[in-house]
Amino acid sequence: MSMKYASTAILLFPLALVPACVSSKKPKKDTAALVNKLVIDALPDGVEKLNSRFDGKITLAGYELTSKGKVKPGDTVTYKLYWRSEKPLGDNGWKLFTHVLNSDKRRLLNIDQVGDLRSDSAPGPSKWQAGKIYVDEQSFKVPDKTEGEELMVTVGVWKKKKRLKLQSGASAGEDRAVALKVTVAGAKAKKRPSTRVPQMRIDKLEKGAKIKIDGKLDEAVWGSAATTGKFVNVRKGKPDASLPVQGDAKLLWDDDGLYVGVTVSDKDIVGGFDSKEKDPHLWTKDCVEIMIDPDGDGDNKDYYEIQINPQNLVFDSQFDDYNKPNGGENGPFGHQDWSAKLQSAVTVDGTLDKPGDEDKGYVVEVKIPWKSLAKAKQAPPALGDKWRMNIYAMQNNGGVAWSPILGQGNFHKASRFGKVTWAEKGWEPPKKGKPTAAKAEDQATPEGQAKGESGKAVDVKAGLEAKSGGKVEPRVNLPSVLPKAATPQLRKLEPAKPSPAPSAAPAAPVAPKP
Q1: Are 486 and 39 in contact (CB under 8 A)?
Q2: pLDDT of amino acid 5
């Protein structure tokens, strides 16, 4: 799956995955003396009180900030956090983590191992006694190249790929509690790209118009289709010619389904999967990924993921919530028994799985039937309905995208999906109240890029995306090496599969390592 799983991206670029916490051993100290120093019965006077509860078992009860007033780059910030154990965690291996974020929530520092409470001699969260307060003193140096006027210290409790769920208190997302904030004087003012997601109006095919799914996009109707424009760097939100893959997409619809045509530039096209292999992880090589959130509210409830690779193999799955359900490192990811019942074809301009030559790229053309999207309130959509979508050209668990994630999660982050409005030629949205001129950024013209800086591209240097794993369905058996020509690969409509029943209880979240 895309920035699969993990997230908000990934990525061919390194995505949306969250970097893992560091674990290193420190010299052991006198355990008895250390416990007397770190374990107390009640909060001291003067502590700034908090109530950040983690899964009802541990509470960040307060903090004391030694560094008063504004700090400057190069200054040292020192503080104490006070953790209260509510009930035993029940298993070993739980640890505390601390991330220092800048004003736009990008991580600057990982200081998981800083402080006596984080040492091997101190009792870790798995050994805490209910009712006791644990004193967690930490410090860090404000980076010289800090951008923005504020630093945010965020904390949580983690074990391997899991985090305790943050139930109350200020949140920085991904089950991280905001412990405290520090004002920085003299930091560089940062010119941030727009965080608005792109928007696009997708017009319906005119009556009688037909599209043949052959991977060529040569029908006249594709010439007037809505387009995303050039995909962008997933983290930075701008086109990035340095990335190894590029892409753009066109979209149309009719009463039967949604049509998507994605053109990918790729100098080394990789398939690499056995068509008979069960559940190949397409996102780990080259593929196109389409995310669909029919609700359009970006809350990550009931969304769909579809991936198609240059071999015309498919992974498709439906998710109840952000990356959920998730069966762990090897899946399953989402409801993999769901089928998009799609029709697709791929044309390769180059040779597949032959690294010694230079390829040009490939084209994916797909029709997704509305009847497959059972979670949609209405499908086909009514004129004026607004959905959320994102489209990625992926390579090595990263890629570029229509709408960038901007470090806010992985490729599944629905709040970063672009907004699409379903329309038809001649249709205009009803005016509400006093008529106002429509903003140019609210629509995409057939020739131009969707307005608004939310296009998404994956930066190989930005971070890997956490994938959800996926099911691949072979459409055609191909030779290991294709001729240097545009080679179409077709996939017929699959017989309908019954929609999976909703899970009685969603799987535990897969939280990236702190």
Answers
A1: no
A2: 45
Q: Three-state SS across 96-164?
A: EEEEEECCCCCEEEECCCCCHHHCCCCCCHHHCCCCCEEEEEEEEECCCCCECCEEEEEEEEEECCEEC
> Which residue type occupies 104?
D
> For residues 483 and 352, is the Cβ–Cβ distance under 8 A?
no
Q: Which two tokens stand for residue 396?
A: 């090595």
Task: Give the bridge partners for 287, in sequence order.
Answer: 394
Cα distance between residue 389 and residue 395, in whole Å? 20
- pTM of the shown model: 0.56
Residue 490 confidence (pLDDT): 52
Reply yes or no on whether the pLDDT at 365 is more than 60.
yes
Is 168 within 8 Å of 59 (Cβ atoms)? no
Provide the sign of the torsion angle of the four alpha carbons 381, 383, 385, 388, taken in this order. positive
> Residue 423 has what DSSP assignment?
E
DSSP states of 316-382 as a string? EEEESBTTBSB-STT--BSBTT-----EEEEEEEE-TT-TTS---EEEEEEEEEGGG-TTSSSSSPP
Q: Which amino acid is at 130?
A: A
Is the alpha carbon torsion for 371, 377, 380, 386 positive or negative?
A: negative
